[in-house]
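PROTEIN–LIGAND DATA SHEET

This sheet pairs a single protein chain with one bound small molecule, zinc ion, given as SMILES. Inputs appear in the order they were entered. The predicted three-dimensional arrangement of chain and ligand is reported afterwards as a token string under its own label.
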Amino acid sequence: MKSSDIAPSVIAPSGRPKMLTAMGRGLLRRCPNCGRGHLYKGSGLKRFIRIIDHCAVCHEQLGHIRADDIPAYFTVFIAGHFMLSGLLSVANRQYPEWAQLTVAIPLAVLLIYVLLPSIKGAVAARLWALGMATGVLESEKALAPD
Ligand SMILES: [Zn+2]
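PREDICTION REPORTED AS:
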């Protein structure tokens, strides 16, 4: 896919999609460049957040993006607030602890399973849009001594 195939309102002067457009695509688990290719390899628990090497549609290199711990931090932050508000709302009721945990633990796992890939996609797309896919600005690489 050429950048001319993408709507002009979502393309920055650099030829890449604008930051929020790229992050929105990442949030939807799509390629930040074209928005059509899938961001993750395969499916299932083991590979649900492994970024593909390159987009199958536009061939943009994506496998080198390293989001590290930030997606997990944001996921725990958001899921923790959901869980805390839920647990506090039932704290004064006389539900047995085993019943609360029977609901809370699967809900926490489900929240993380749903939130983590989307948050990682948005973070990876932001890093891609900033040119910081490996944690170093692309412009800094040219300045760094060997
Ligand atoms: Zn793509």
